[in-house]
Automatic annotation (TrEMBL):
One of its GO terms (cellular component) is basolateral plasma membrane. Keywords: Cell membrane, Membrane, Signal, Transmembrane, Transmembrane helix. Residues 45-100 form the Kazal-like domain. It is found in: Cell membrane. InterPro entries: Kazal_dom, OATP. It comes from Anisakis simplex. It is a multi-pass membrane protein. One of its GO terms (biological process) is sodium-independent organic anion transport. This is Kazal-like domain-containing protein. It comes from the Eukaryota. The chain crosses the membrane at residues 131-149, 170-197. The keyword Signal applies.
């Protein structure tokens, strides 16, 4: 039975790696994707390009999406769009100079100068990743609980018959105490991570968090919030003034 218990816990430990499965991050033009259709990191991103230099864009966070490629622009103005169409399907933008410029580079066959941009975020589909995650997580839970009955039988065999009730009580008491300690540690870690969370973009010029945060826990985030007090907004406000 000990072999079965160790085997179940070993399988559960292997399957817990399903939490490493990730969905692809959104591509934000000017943030983590340049107007030359190249991935950028750190402070190399910039919202301005030759295609929107004369647009006098404001700092309003109003994203638009190119559905074919999944690219999201900060706003229609930063995409260089000049024509707006509103219908029952939503708000669309045409004649986008930045989209035309990116399509002319030929680095992404999904980009076309005849396409339009839709108001809102681009949704990134995870494909089969989420189903694989749920399946592996289910198997991990099954493997974890499969060791419960063998361990219970071992305990009943090694404890004298007259003390089985006491043995079961002591066993579950220590088990619950261990669970409480682990739960308290996880809760305190979450609180500490929240209090010390500091996204990279506050000091590297990015307007959307696309990398890891800084702090004792070094949490990994993929945040789609608008810019607040970042250098990108400072540069935009300086250009407007």
């Amino acid at each position: 039975m000990l072999k079965m218990i160790f085997a179940c816990h070993f399988v559960a430990l292997l399957l817990i790696t399903c939490f490493l499965i990730q969905c692809p991050a959104r591509d934000f033009v000017g943030i983590n994707l340049s107007y030359q259709v190249e991935k950028v990191k750190g402070a190399n991103g910039g919202l301005y390009s030759t295609c929107n230099a004369d647009c006098s864009c404001k700092s309003d966070w109003n994203p638009v999406c190119h559905e074919a490629s999944g690219y999201t622009f900060y706003s229609a103005c930063y995409a260089g769009c000049t024509e707006q169409t509103v219908n029952s399907s939503g708000t669309f933008w045409d004649d986008c100079k930045c989209l035309d410029e990116m399509a002319s580079l030929g680095r992404n066959p999904l980009l076309s100068s005849s396409d339009n941009l839709r108001q809102g975020f681009c949704e990134k589909k995870c494909g089969y990743g989420e189903w694989i995650f749920l399946f592996l997580l289910f198997l991990s839970v099954v493997a974890s609980f499969a060791s419960g009955i063998p361990s219970q039988q071992i305990m009943l065999r090694v404890v004298p018959f007259q003390q089985r009730t006491l043995g079961i009580g002591v066993h579950w008491t220590f088990l619950r105490l261990l669970a409480v300690v682990c739960k308290l540690v996880s809760i305190l870690a979450a609180i500490l991570g929240y209090m010390t969370y500091r996204p990279n973009d506050l000091d590297n010029g990015l307007s959307v968090q696309t990398a890891d945060s800084r702090g004792p826990l070094s949490l990994t985030v993929n945040d789609d919030r608008p810019v607040i007090n970042s250098k990108v907004l400072e540069s935009i406000d300086g250009a407007e003034s």
